Amino acid sequence: MIELYRIWKQYQKPHWALSDVTLKIDPGDFCFITGPSGSGKTTLLKIIYREIFPTQGQIIIDKRNILRISDHKIYRLRREMGIVFQDFRLMFHKKVFDNVGVVLQVLGVPRKEIRRRVFNALRMVNLHHKMWEYPSYLSYGEQQRVAIARAVVNRPKIILADEPTGNLDPELAFEIMSLFKEINRQGATIIICTHDRELIRHFGQKIVFLYKGKLLRKETL
Amino acid sequence: MLAVFFLQKDISEPQQKAIEEELNKSPLVSKSRYVDSQMALERFKEKFTELQGIVKNLDTNPFPPSFEVTFKEKALSYDNVLSFIQKVKAMPGIEDVQFNQDWVDRMQSFSRLAKAVGFFLGGILILASFFIISNIIKINVYSRKNEIEILRLVGATNIFIKIPFLIEGVVLGIIGGMFSLLLLLFLIQIFPIYLGSSLGVLNELINFRYLSFSQSINIIMLGGLIGFLGSMSSLSRFLKT
Ligand SMILES: Nc1ncnc2c1ncn2[C@@H]1O[C@H](COP(=O)(O)OP(=O)(O)OP(=O)(O)O)[C@@H](O)[C@H]1O
Ligand SMILES: [Mg+2]
Fold first, then answer.
1. Pairwise CA distance, residues A75 & B154, whole Å
2. Strand partners for A156
3. What's the CA gap between A149 and B10, in Å, rounded?
């Protein structure tokens, strides 16, 4: 369970990137966050995985106040999450294999097991034939799928995906969403930021509308 | 350098032989001479003519027999000579030993000075390598900032992130240690040849020795330690979240 309670975030005065956002996401939810560019979607995600701290407010994830977790213990939270960053954040001097496998490496998973699971994850995003390439030789859409494979490779309890289909054609976007849906069916909580009305209409269960940092409305279909 | 070993009056023939042999077989000794009581007395009379009266009135000869030993200047390591003298002094039949304390003192203060200069320079070099290594690590941390960031976000512990940098620092330190050893070997080879004649008397005092195996290992390990500490200090400053 992810609970955000009266979250405010200000990067620079006088603008508020988020103002007074209160939100509860239940385990097993498949939740879309949508809203115009600059409305605070990425900011909200960053606060959830604690890349940044809110100016005010509290966040509770599975009974833990994550703002109180010390820096050297925050890895435990991150290990429960798979994150697709809006800017991918791939390691460009490492191969696709290592970019996906790093999630398992930090856990000390044996190399053979890593190979198996990385291959499977890449196959799910249709990219297993590029396993030994460097990300810089991949198209944007392919890089995005590497980022998605990395987010799902460890079967996390929570997936946070920031515009995960922004660079994909509609068919591929559909496939990726189906993948998330499948992982969701197996029990994971999924939070996806997107502009794509088509996808929301097709896959949406819980939809959160942000506008200029304010939570405009919540919809549950 | 000269040392005089005074023998006991009642020294036996085999004892004296043993001492003579010990002196002659040592590589440190250039020559040794036996001076019996009679010769010693004669020499005294010659040197201090005005005291002849005193000596004449003695009914016994007060001068003990002795060995006068000259040490090879070339082979001199002060410690070796001293321990050799101690060893001979402990042999049966030796009453006492006299040697030029002045010279010993000079040597001692010289070697103290050399040690102090050595420690000073060594300390400076250790500090320098510490800072160089910690700077290299700092540069590497910065150039891999992006990757470190990603590691954090996928749940790497601090130690997981630090280990490659620590290994790098240790390896750098060890390589530096080995390199400095090679340089030292080379210098020891070249230095006496290059400066030999101009060093003059110093050349006889300074003993160019290669480092022993365990000393070499220590230097390399010290290098590794410096590398480890250098990268530790760098990481603690530049790898904050
Ligand atoms: N690091 C930052 N420093 C200053 N301002 C920031 C920073 N990050 C975001 N902002 C501002 O906060 C607001 C919300 O940004 P955010 O990235 O959350 O929007 P978004 O909804 O993700 O937009 P998009 O759909 O374009 O990705 C924007 O006005 C943006 O300019
Ligand atoms: Mg965004």
1. 8
2. none
3. 99
Residue of B149, B154, B160 lying closest to A103 (CB–CB): B154
**pTM for the structure as a whole:** 0.75
Note the pLDDT tens digit of each residue in B134-169.
999 999 999 999 999 999 999 999 999 999 999 999
Rounded distance between C-alpha atoms, residue A128 and residue A112, angstroms: 16
A86 interfaces chain B, CB cutoff of 8 Å: no
Domain range list for chain A: 26-53+76-213
Is the CB of residue A171 less than 8 Å away from at least one CB of chain B? no
Which of B147, B149, B151 shows the shortest C-beta gap to A106? B151
Last residue of a domain, one of B99, B132, B157: B99
For chain B, state the CA radius of gyration: 30
Yes or no: domain A26-53+76-213 corresponds to CATH 3.40.50.300? yes
ipTM, 2 dp? 0.93
Q: How far is the CA of A95 from the centre of ligand 1 (A)?
A: 30
Give Cβ neighbours of residue B184 (< 8 Å, ≥ 6 apart). B211
Among protein residues, the one with the nearest Cα to ligand 1's atom 22 is A42
* Cβ pair B65, B26 in contact under 8 A: no
pLDDT tens string B109-120: 887 888 899 899
